[in-house]
Amino acid sequence: MVLELTGIESRKIMIDTSKITTLKHDIEEAKHVVFLTGAGISTHSGIPDYRSKTGIYNGISEPPETILSEDTLYQRPELFHNFVMQNMYFPDAQPNPIHEKIAKICNEKGYLITQNIDRLDTKAGNQHVLEFHGNLYEIYCTKCHQPVSYEAYAQDFRHQDCGGIIRPKVVLYGEAINPETLTKSVEIMRQSDLIIIAGTSFVVYPFAQLLAYRNPAAKIWAVNKTPLPAQGINEIIGDALDVFPNL
Q1: Sign (positive/negative) of CA torsion 156, 74, 183, 147?
Q2: What is the C-alpha separation between 222 and 208, in angstroms, rounded?
Q3: Which of 175, 169, 46, 187 is CA-nearest to residue 117?
Q4: Which pLDDT value is given to residue 53?
Q5: Where are the domains of the chain?
Q6: What's the CA angle centered on 119, arms 114 and 120, to 5 degrees?
Q7: Is 141 known as a binding-site position?
Q8: How far is CA 176 from the centre of its chain?
Q9: Is 25 within any annotated ligand binding site?
Q10: How far apart are the C-alpha atoms of 31 and 37, rounded to whole Å?
Q11: Which end of the chain has less Cβ packing within 10 Å, N or C?
């Protein structure tokens, strides 16, 4: 059965309700659900994604791999600071129904591994969140290693106490994922009996490689606007905002 829905901003879409029903049943039957999410989850909270036509990388003066690198952080700290402040921080953003539904399921019987660095999942009350690429709001001085508030960082990239360069605790281009994060991610994947991928093109590594560590018996679903490159996935093609409230 195909259902015509009119959603946010009068978006008219067609959704296969039988797939939603099956996914809902799989969630109810699962003992350990794992969500793998990306930027598409937060766009409905007013946070742009990265590489779409309206994304933060569109039309920038230098490649993002250059601007958001450790070299730029230390060699051109003003450029780094201006870019993240103008394009990546949305302190007033609030969780949307997708965050809320994921939080409800995770708090009951699951875990979220997210690429997002906007902390909206924890704002939604999710107690089982692993931020694979870190969190923009964990900010510290690279010289004295003291924590720094967002408000202080917004004013200056230099630490007033010691003059060190301040940075958010996120994985920059060229930096490795925290080994503890990788170990925890693999552990979570191995416990899974249901995996739900949402709001991500699932092409960024090593995040996309996490599927290799899943429980072989786990069912895999994707709720995404476009098909994913991975094989063996049950897919609902559409906007997650039109799907998750019905789960």
Answers
A1: negative
A2: 13
A3: 169
A4: 79
A5: 22-47+95-133+176-247, 48-89+137-170
A6: 90
A7: yes
A8: 17
A9: no
A10: 19
A11: N
**The domain 22-47+95-133+176-247 belongs to what CATH superfamily?**
TPP-binding domain (3.40.50.1220)
Residues of the chain with pLDDT under 70: 1-14
Residues in contact with 47: Cβ distance below 8 Å, sequence separation at least 6, in sequence order? 39, 90, 93, 118, 120
Closest CA to 214 of 19, 25, 32: 32
6 beta partners: 12
Residue 106 is labelled as binding a ligand: no
Strand partners, 147: 140
**pLDDT, tens digit, for every residue of 184-195?**
999 999 999 999
4-42: per-residue pLDDT in tens? 444 434 344 567 789 999 999 999 999 999 999 999 999
103: closest CA among 244, 246, 8?
244
> Which token pair is 26?
């799989």
pTM above 0.85, yes or no: yes
Looking at the chain, the number of H-run helices and the number of E-run strands are: 9, 11
Residues 243, 236: Cα–Cα separation, whole Å: 8
- Residue 242 neighbours by CB distance under 10 Å: 21
CATH code of the region 48-89+137-170: 3.30.1600.10
Per the CB < 8 A criterion, the answer to whether 210 and 222 are in contact is: no
Active site residues per annotation: 133
Contact yes or no for 90/44 (Cβ under 8 A): no
Alpha helix positions (H), 110-167: 120-123, 150-155
Half-sphere exposure of 17 (CA within 13 A, CB side): 6
